[in-house]
Amino acid sequence: MESIVEQRNLNIDGNNIATCIMQNDFLLETFEDNTLLRQQFVKRFQNQCDSVVLVASKNDYYSYFVFEPNVGGNGTFSLMCGNGLKAAVSMIPKSQVKIKTPAGMFMAKKSGFDNEIFVGKFVCGNAARQRFMKSTGQKVLLNTVKQQFAQNGITYKVDVCLGYNAESSLFIGEPHLAVYFLDPLPIIEMVAIAKKISILIRNSDLFTEEVNVTFVSFKSLIDNMCTLAACTFERNLGNNPDVALTGSCGTGAMAASNYFYKHALKKRQTEMKFLLDFPKATLKVSIRKGTTVIFGDTSYESF
After folding, report:
1. For the whole prediction, is pTM greater than 0.90?
2. Could you point out which of 190, 247, 292, 294 has its C-alpha 20 to 30 Å from the C-alpha of 107?
3. Rounded CA separation 177/173 (Å)
4. Helix-helix angle 82-91:250-259, to 10 degrees
């Protein structure tokens, strides 16, 4: 799928600013002092772009923040943003770098136009669920729930994977939910269906909190390359599915890939590569011996 992107001509005097030419609109800025970050963001960036990525240089790593101006009344910080990490890496003048996010430390490297973000091993299974429940006090329900949703007289069967740490969902970043259509669907049809049922899923009693929801459908499998159709609805963006649908989602791509790797493949591969066709971009993910990597071209223009 051809990537559809939009560049916003934002320029603020005296700052190192770049717009990222990628799946979502990002404004990138380097900074030295993170005092009163929220006040800075709200005052200067609200309603101008989807997200603001700030990167500060430390001794042996870069400190990284993503602020989403259009979420809620005053915007919100993200624990981790897969696309934002790629955007930040594109701006850092190093071939390999450690990036510290609120969700933890990640390793990133660049090779030509490919930026690889090593996310690490997924935390799965009962032991992880028990640790999560003990540390947060939140009750995590079943790993996988089979659901059926009827729309316009047609019944769609889906697998729903729950919460932070259930198998096939993420233990890092924002809570993510993977919804897998058991029957293959074209991306346009899947988006139309997902808009109708996303509110039902997000408001159901399957979860203890609102989460990001990524819908995924199988397209093709050739050797160790799997192509999936996907779309993500962002948390806290309200119940209007047209507003909540994002152009692409790096973290959602990883959650969807991990779901398919854990549950849908008949034969486990040492390395599996995924192409995820989102409404506005195709994202690339690979799983290598349990370690998940999001990679691909990220370009930007600076002023």
Report:
1. no
2. 247
3. 12
4. 120
